[in-house]
Amino acid sequence: MVGFLLLFLPFPFLLYIAAPQIRKMLSSGVCTSTVQLPGKVAVVTGANTGIGKETATELAQRGARVYLACRDVQKAELVAREIQTKTGNQQVFVRKLDLADTKSIRAFVQDFSVEEKQLHILINNAGVMMCPYSKTADGFEMHMGVNHLGHFLLTHLLLEKLKESAPSRVVNVSSLAHYLGRIHFHNLQGERYYNAGLAYCHSKLANILFTQELARRLKGSGVTTYSVHPGTVKSELTRHSSFMTWMWWLFSSFLKTPQQGAQTSLYCALTEGLENLSGKHFSDCQLAWVSAQARNEVIARRLWDVSCDLLGIPLD
Ligand SMILES: NC(=O)c1ccc[n+]([C@@H]2O[C@H](COP(=O)([O-])OP(=O)(O)OC[C@H]3O[C@@H](n4cnc5c(N)ncnc54)[C@H](OP(=O)(O)O)[C@@H]3O)[C@@H](O)[C@H]2O)c1
Q: May I ask which residue range the UniProt record assigns to the signal sequence (predicted)?
């Protein structure tokens, strides 16, 4: 017994030593596109931290006019200045966007439409995970409201501009967690039953279904769309769960950095020749499998209609 224990004693130490190599293995997928973006306009939601900040930085590095669409303007202004200094691109702007309030989304689009004639890249990146049960200003369950419905409305309101600017792209940041998600139409707002972890999964499934239906409706328009899983990334996403924060801390050596986590979003936004794959899901800069639920066109169409209904968007 003692011999057996002694055999395994060095294991944690070896694991710790090997952590950088293991992380490298798990972080495969680098956006190798050399596309430059002078004259192009990009919007990144939730760009004041984590994956969104790194995505915005790279788009600015390539010369785009980049809008950081964030709910905390003060925090985002500091990040904008940091990106400007790092990239030498002064065309990095902060605009207020609270995805938990449809009034804020409409105000953002109204101001943006006055400021910019074009929009070439929309990265729907912002997200919340494992919030205690709460509702948005419009009464939507927080995960479904921010992660899905907020981005659904934002994209809808920006669609004409995206079409006018074609070729243009919409990238929706989903998650591997969508595998545990289900769209319970009878309990979309979590009023009958609520589990914070599952609520996140449901909203991430909605991101993929939205991407597929959007791609179907945009066929031939020159606007293409992709959903992505960024990997497991060290960020502030776990802030609402002490358990997940502890797990993230425990396994932090194995997690992707936000910069590594941004690679698949950048790949989908920038890589040439991806147009035929509109509606598909990507991870580690390559096509990825999605759950059976996420491939269900009937659910995708119904979710589209229900989302329009909830947001007061006329059905076409
Ligand atoms: N980290 C991972 O392992 C992982 C894995 C799979 C998928 N993802 C997805 O990746 C995306 C980015 O997450 P992250 O890891 O970078 O997390 P993060 O560091 O927590 O960043 C999330 C961003 O979303 C913003 N946000 C939250 N609620 C918002 C609202 N109501 N309106 C506008 N912005 C809001 C946050 O703003 P504040 O700073 O003001 O709160 C923050 O800028 C999310 O969609 C997430 O689901 C992450």
A: 1-19
